[in-house]
Write a structure and sequence with these properties.
The chain is 79% helix and 0% strand. By secondary structure, it is an all-alpha fold. It has one domain.
Length: 268
């Protein structure tokens, strides 16, 4: 398979899975395995193209984010509160990610781990959605610092491929008393500093293998992930408001079971 076709496929997988609780990294690792992409450069591409999907959030929420930015300079209390809540939620995973970065890429990037965590995460999502406390917060831009802190702690679980960053933060939001829509929306906002940080760290550590030829491949995947991410962000909130998170949970469980069966049969 040509590199550009592999890049398109990986870009689609990234954009379509980054903002739903099914684990984009897990699905990317599975796809990479199925395509036979064994070169370590593809692991780097998987991390770098996540920024493309994140830019979809920036594009669609640009007016609200720009208003917050202007509010920070004018000392608007609501803007400062929102920015601080995102920072509070971001810091735990930033610390864990920095400390465990090498361990994550050398040990946890394993499809067997992905399939198991997909199943466990799917079961957890089903249980928590049904037993979550009655929502007390419904505005992602006005979450309490306590809610933001709990979401941030849950995001640390996402260092394990297959757990899902969006899934972990949404679960944290539901347990903290957020409704489904605002929990998903806060997950969008939190993705921006989290994925930008992961992009910067991996780009710096992998800079020597990013030659001009492979940068073109990354660019293709980057654009595809951005465009497919736009579609998902535009439709995600309305979907979870109507259907909840159960469809994603059952998808996780199904993929995990099929994957473990494929490994057992020697197909992977």
């Amino acid at each position: 398979m040509s590199d550009w076709l592999a890049a398109i496929i990986l870009g689609l997988v990234e954009g379509l899975t980054e903002f739903i609780p099914v684990s984009s990294t897990g699905h990317l690792l599975i796809t990479k395995e199925m395509l036979g992409l064994t070169d370590p450069k593809w692991d780097t591409l998987i991390v770098l193209i996540q920024l493309g999907a994140i830019l979809a959030v920036v594009a669609l929420y640009f007016q609200r984010l720009w208003k917050v930015l202007l509010g920070l300079f004018s000392r608007d209390p609501s803007a400062r509160r929102f920015a601080l809540s995102v920072l509070i939620a971001f810091l735990p995973s930033a610390v864990v990610g920095l400390l465990a970065h090498d361990f994550i890429k050398t040990v946890l990037f394993d499809v067997r781990i992905v399939f198991v965590t997909l199943i466990l995460g799917g079961i957890a999502l089903l249980i928590i959605e049904r037993r979550a406390p009655t929502p007390r917060e419904d505005d992602a831009m006005r979450f309490s610092f306590k809610t933001a802190s709990l979401i941030g702690l849950f995001q640390c679980l996402a260092i394990i491929p297959g757990m899902s960053r969006s899934g972990a933060t949404i679960v944290g939001g539901l347990l903290a008393g957020a409704d489904k829509r605002s929990a998903a929306e806060f997950s969008f906002f939190l993705a921006i500093p989290t994925m930008v940080g992961a992009f910067a760290l991996d780009f710096w550590e992998s800079r020597e293998m990013l030659n001009s030829d492979f940068m073109g491949t990354i660019a293709i995947a980057f654009v595809v992930s951005f465009l497919s991410g736009l579609f998902v962000v535009r439709t995600m909130l309305d979907f979870v408001t109507r259907h909840g998170f159960a469809p994603f949970a059952w998808w996780r469980i199904a993929v995990g079971i099929v994957g473990l069966a494929a490994i057992g049969a020697g197909w992977l």
